[in-house]
């Protein structure tokens, strides 16, 4: 008997080219995604993917299978969305914010709407806002940005709380007893998120830095954690993302004679989106962060 779920997972992994991103979109664990792919490979007797430094790449036979089934599977998925009794939610978010801060909210939402799915998109913030305005996304989780960059007649921001960007180091760093000034920090190598992130943009303004400086290293969140835990380096990251690492003394806060201004975070929604499942999710998030 054909297991359509295996083929659905195969299509998602092929599109995302990454197990982590596929698991976020499918709302199942990474090991589960890997197991399902292995089950499909065993069932078909072929290897569908090969790993590279960027993620997952289709083999020749994998490409052949993808080309054969992508349209039929998409037709089934679209029909499922159309006729399901619960509407799915298309959510845009930085993966780190979603996993580190909203995991409890997502779990509670599924208790309320077990037949609904939250499909996750991780694009640049501007792209997600554009998708939200076109109703390709239903909700975006993010730090607050200047209202000038989006259509306030269509998009509404709902504040949930504050986030705090901090400079972090290894718990055994040679810097742990030193207090840095802005001028001193501006001369140090600093690991930051991608150039378009709000954290990096704010850092550049605060330290009066310019693009292209050799001491600013843009890397992913996961890579930054690995470097900071094992090397004597400085990074900047949102404090609320690393509570576990700080409690376990895997990371420490770098002392400075100034503080970065807190940032509002919350929900961006299209004011035309008013369906029940979205209202339920927003209610859960407000309850979690605003204590309403």
List the helices and strands and how they pair.
Blueprint: H1 4-16, H2 19-26, H3 30-44, E1 49-52, E2 55-58, H4 60-83, E3 89-93, H5 95-101, H6 103-112, E4 118-121, H7 125-133, E5 139-143, E6 155-163, E7 165-170, E8 179-180, H8 182-186, E9 190-192, H9 198-206, E10 216-218, H10 221-230, E11 234-238, H11 243-247, E12 251-253, E13 255-256, E14 263-270, H12 276-290
Parallel strand pairs: 3-4, 3-5, 8-13, 9-10, 9-11
Antiparallel strand pairs: 1-2, 5-14, 6-14, 7-11, 7-12
Helix pairs in contact: 1-2, 1-3, 1-4, 2-3, 6-12
Give an account of the 3D structure.
The structure is a single chain. By secondary structure, this protein is α/β, with parallel strands linked by helices. The chain is built from twelve helices and 14 strands. A five-stranded mixed sheet has the order 4-3-5-14-6, with helices on both faces. A hairpin with a 2-residue loop joins strand 1 and strand 2. The relative contact order is 0.13. The mean pLDDT is 89.
What is the annotated CATH architecture of the largest domain? 3-Layer(aba) Sandwich
User: Sheet with the most strands?
Assistant: 5 strands, mixed
CATH class descriptor name of the largest domain: Alpha Beta
What fraction of residues sit in β-strands? 15-25%
Q: How many extended strands? A: 14
Q: What is the molecular shape?
A: globular
Write down the Rg.
21 Å
Helical amount among residues, as a percent range? 40-55%
Q: What is the CATH topology descriptor of the largest domain?
A: D-Maltodextrin-Binding Protein, domain 2
Distance between the termini: 49 Å
Order of helices and strands: HHHEEHEHHEHEEEEHEHEHEHEEEH
CATH superfamily of the largest domain, please? Answer: Periplasmic binding protein-like II
Low-confidence stretches: none
Discrete helix count: 12
Structural class: alpha/beta
């Amino acid at each position: 008997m054909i297991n359509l779920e295996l083929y659905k997972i195969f299509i998602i992994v092929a599109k995302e080219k990454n197990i982590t991103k596929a698991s976020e979109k499918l709302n199942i664990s990474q090991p589960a995604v890997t197991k399902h792919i292995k089950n499909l490979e065993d069932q078909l007797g072929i290897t569908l993917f090969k790993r590279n430094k960027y993620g997952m790449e289709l083999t020749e036979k994998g490409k052949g299978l993808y080309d054969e089934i992508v349209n039929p599977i998409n037709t089934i998925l679209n029909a499922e969305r159309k006729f399901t009794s619960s509407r799915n939610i298309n959510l845009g978010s930085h993966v780190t914010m979603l996993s580190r801060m909203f995991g409890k909210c997502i779990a509670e939402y599924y208790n309320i709407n077990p037949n609904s799915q939250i499909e996750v998109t991780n694009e640049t913030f501007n792209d997600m806002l554009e998708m939200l305005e076109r109703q390709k996304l239903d909700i975006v989780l993010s730090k607050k940005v200047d209202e000038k960059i989006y259509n306030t007649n269509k998009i509404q921001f709902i504040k949930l709380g504050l986030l705090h960007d901090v400079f972090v180091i290894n718990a055994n760093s040679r810097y742990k007893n030193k207090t840095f000034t802005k001028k001193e920090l501006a001369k140090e190598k600093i690991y930051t998120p991608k150039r378009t992130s709000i954290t990096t943009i704010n850092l550049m303004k605060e330290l009066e830095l310019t693009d292209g400086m050799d001491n600013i290293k843009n890397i992913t969140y996961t890579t930054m954690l690995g470097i900071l835990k094992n090397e004597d380096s400085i990074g900047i990251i949102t404090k609320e993302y690393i509570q576990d690492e700080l409690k376990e003394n895997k990371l420490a806060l770098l002392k400075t004679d100034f503080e970065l201004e807190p940032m509002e975070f919350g929900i961006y929604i299209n004011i035309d989106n008013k369906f029940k499942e979205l209202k339920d999710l927003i209610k859960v998030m407000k309850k979690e962060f605003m204590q309403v």
